UniProtKB/TrEMBL annotation, chain A:
GO terms for cellular component: plasma membrane. The chain crosses the membrane at residues 22-51, 63-84, 104-128, 155-181, 201-226. PANTHER family: PERMEASE COMPONENT OF TUNGSTATE ABC TRANSPORTER (PTHR43632:SF1). Residues 26-222 form the ABC transmembrane type-1 domain. The lineage of its organism: Bacteria, Pseudomonadati, Pseudomonadota, Alphaproteobacteria, Rhodobacterales. This is Tungstate transport system permease protein. It is found in: Cell membrane.
Automatic annotation (TrEMBL), chain B:
InterPro entries: AAA+_ATPase, ABC_transporter-like_ATP-bd, ABC_transporter-like_CS, P-loop_NTPase. It comes from Cognatiyoonia sediminum. GO terms for molecular function: ATP binding; ATP hydrolysis activity. This is Tungstate transport system ATP-binding protein. Residues 21-241 form the ABC transporter domain. The keyword Transport applies. Keywords: ATP-binding, Nucleotide-binding, Transport. Gene3D superfamilies: P-loop containing nucleotide triphosphate hydrolases (3.40.50.300). It holds the Pfam family ABC_tran. The keyword ATP-binding applies.
Length: 235, 247
């Protein structure tokens, strides 16, 4: 029990001291996950909205594919990307293996289907409400997509938070394509796994606490942004 | 009491108008039912035409066909020279989760009104709807009548020559109804043709220049309002005005 409390004490001491290794890991995690999230949103929001407002052959199959891809096993994504980027792989020339870029790509592959599927569901709901009115106002399809995306922004913020949560929590894929190299590709989750296996509980706990704080801060930020939306909604 | 009057489609009895909106044998079937069953009408390019009839007669559907939101099974909708483009206001206003001003600004953008002209036009629309003092309020927080006035002027943002109104005062109280009716009269006086679907016979009497009476998917009668209310010609219209339940 004493070890348990000691580990917490040391963890808080590490955080309070601004340990450079700890800070480096946190900053890299933020850089990788936020970059992946931004790119996934840029890709996912319009595709999700287009899937909601369009009707074309194969649309249902695409929707099913993205819904299924929400549950992609991270290690399978990591392994696939590893095979693509490894020396024997078709994308070896890019020299991305064991770089933060490879980790960003892995996270994009994992969270984009989530963004697309949740966005499609949200926009489809709004389309049922606003579709006829927008068509009566002669809105073109891109105008309809833009209007509904803006209308959906409180729900899309939540979607982004879900995506960010998935990105931050991810271990398997980034471990395989990043290699968990100290000062290069070591992020919070891979570091927690490593430090725990080495018995360095203080560092693991410190990173875990910071991960929780980031999750809380993100949700608080979304909640703080929401009042204006709620005020305008009045639904 | 219930009555099922047989309807024989008739040619419009009002004057022929080269600017008119012409509906030629509009038919629409769904799951074996004829929802619109050969609608024929020539609707003049000015004044207020009310489209009345019992529930399920096809009134709202006909507005959607005119608006090209629903494709008829057969038949043609032809806009005469007097019409540039139509706009439609639905029974239940669907407004964006934005302020009153932002809703109108969005409509002006969709209508491709140049940015430089938007603020002036927006101010005019706010005045027309008597919503200037509520311009910054969330649109969805307005009362039912205010929301409907907003949706009417939003439809006017595109400067339509024809405004289709689908029961705009349904479930509104008398003062809200009067405000909407005043807006409809002012819009008509400004030269916009109005086609108004209503269940309210008194409202049709107050507003209509001519009446299209729709029953069982057919135009049972199309005549000047005064004539319609004083001496309806068709059995169905007589029954409707007498308060019979038409099936």
């Amino acid at each position: 029990m004493q070890d348990f409390f000691d580990a917490f004490q040391q963890a808080f001491a590490l955080i309070a001291s601004g340990d450079p290794e700890l800070i480096g890991i946190v900053l890299l995690s933020l850089r990788v996950s936020l970059t992946a999230l931004i790119l996934a949103c840029i890709i996912g929001f319009p595709i999700g909205a287009l899937l909601a407002v369009s009707n074309f052959p194969g649309r249902r199959a695409i929707i099913l594919f993205f819904n299924a891809a929400m549950g992609l096993p991270p290690v399978v994504v990591g392994l696939t990307l590893y095979l693509l980027f490894s020396q024997a792989g078709p994308l070896a020339v890019l020299e991305l293996l064991y770089t933060p870029t490879a980790m960003i790509i892995a996270q994009i592959v994992l969270i984009t289907p989530i963004i697309i599927s949740l966005t499609r569901g949200t926009i489809a709901g709004l389309l049922a409400e606003h579709g006829e009115t927008l068509r009566a106002m002669r809105a073109t399809r891109p105008q309809m997509v833009m209007t509904l995306l803006r209308e959906a922004h409180p729900a899309l913020l939540t979607t982004a938070v879900v995506g960010l949560g998935r990105a931050f929590a991810e271990v398997g894929a980034v471990m395989i394509v990043g290699g968990n190299i100290n000062h290069v590709t070591r992020v919070m989750t891979t570091s927690i796994a490593l430090e725990t296996s080495r018995g360095e509980l203080a560092m693991a706990l410190a990173l875990g606490i910071i991960l929780l704080i980031i999750a809380l801060f993100t949700n608080a930020a979304v909640y703080a942004l929401a009042p204006r939306s709620r005020e305008l909604a009045h639904v | 009491m219930s009555e099922s009057a047989e309807v024989v489609p008739i040619r419009p009895s009002i004057r022929l108008d080269t600017d008119a909106l012409t509906l030629t044998d509009i038919r629409l079937s769904h799951e074996g039912r004829n929802l619109l069953d050969g609608v024929i009408a020539e609707i003049s390019s000015n004044g207020i035409t009310t489209l009345i009839g019992p529930n399920g007669a096809g009134k709202s559907l006909l507005l959607r066909v005119i608006m090209d939101l629903v494709k008829p099974t057969s038949g043609v909708v032809e806009f005469g020279d007097g019409f540039e483009h139509p706009a439609l206001v639905f029974q239940r206003p669907i407004l964006l989760r934005r302020s009153v001003r932002a809703n109108l600004n969005h409509a002006l953008k969709l209508a491709k009104v140049p940015k430089a002209d938007r603020s002036g036009r927006l101010a005019e629309l706010l005045v027309a709807a008597d919503l200037t003092r509520l311009a910054e309020n969330p649109a969805r927080a307005l009362s039912g009548g205010e929301q409907q006035r907003l949706s009417i002027v939003r439809a006017l943002a595109s400067n339509p020559s024809l405004l289709l109104l689908d029961e705009p005062t349904a479930s509104l109280d008398p003062s809200a109804t009067k405000a909407i009716e005043d807006l409809i009269r002012n819009t008509s006086a400004a030269g916009v043709k109005i086609i108004l679907v209503t269940h309210n016979r008194a409202q049709a009497k107050r507003l209509a220049d001519d009446v299209l009476f729709l029953h069982q998917g057919k135009i049972a009668e199309h005549t000047l309002a005064e004539k319609f209310f004083q001496a309806p010609q068709s059995d169905a219209a007589k029954g409707y005005l007498a308060g019979d339940l038409l099936l």
